Amino acid sequence: MKRPLKKARVPINPPLSARDVEEALEERISTGKYPLGQRLPPVRDIAAEFGTSPSTVSRALQEMMRSGWLEVYERRFVRVRDQLPSNVVRSADIQRSARAIAHKWKLKGGSYDELIATLSEIVADVFKLQTEFVFTECNPNDLNFMAAQLAQELPDSTLNCQLIKELDKDELERDGSVILVPYFHYAEVRKLVGDALSIVPIHFKPSVETLDKLLTIRPGSNILVFGRDQRSVQRLSLMVREYVDAKITGITIDEREKLPKLAKSADAVVTVSTALETVPRLPPIKQLIEVRFELETSLGNRLKNGPVKSAAP
After folding, report:
1. pTM of the complete model
2. Bigger pLDDT: 308 or 289?
3. Which residue segments constitute the domains of the chain, with CATH numbers given?
4. Euclidean distance between the first and final Cα of the chain, in Å?
């Protein structure tokens, strides 16, 4: 008689806030992923990708419409404006922070010229420093695979790698490190290290090899999605739907006792390495697609040439 598999405890990642979603969408518009005038994906698709609720995404879209990024087109869908006001390209967080600093300075009797001189000195020091980037992910395979791509985009920068569970907040603060993290782990890392550190969420997309394998799946197939947690299942399911017209069933690590039966009847199993690591022995599978992610190169250019965004205002 086979012993039942022990259920591994999987940490529940905190969902992204409406402001986090705003920043992600603003970045995609700024880098051209969502061109001017283009329709945005449906709210539920955005929510599934970022692992948050549709209501959170709706609040983010409403705020972006108020600030001039988006508009409702002919009462049918939300799209990027054909022309963005000049003020929207500035970070709202930076504006709020600068305003708060200026008010506090003024209340303490400081002069305008003194404030500008102090800020100029601080900013100059920051831009003179050689920034140390720390890339983090939840498993060694993806950590090394993704970091190799980032290193190519940042040839003149110091790039270290650490698993999320190994991040040392105090050490990172002492070194003045900037954390680079895939968007789907952004909220998890921010909760772990706090707001004192600069965290830059990075967009990764399915690799060409992964997409090639997805395109071999026949329409109408039964697909089993096996993810690390519910957010991972949602993200993988959304990705599959974009390329395959198929019937999708999703399970998490906590439900892996269902894997043998569901995998046997599935035409393909789509999963990530962190989920596979929890299964000592896989049942016979017709087609196994282990998803890998690759860096969107426009982000590499932004990191190399643009200012680093802080996680906190």
Report:
1. 0.59
2. 289
3. 18-89 (1.10.10.10), 91-128 (no CATH), 130-204+294-313 (3.40.50.2300), 208-291 (3.40.50.980)
4. 57
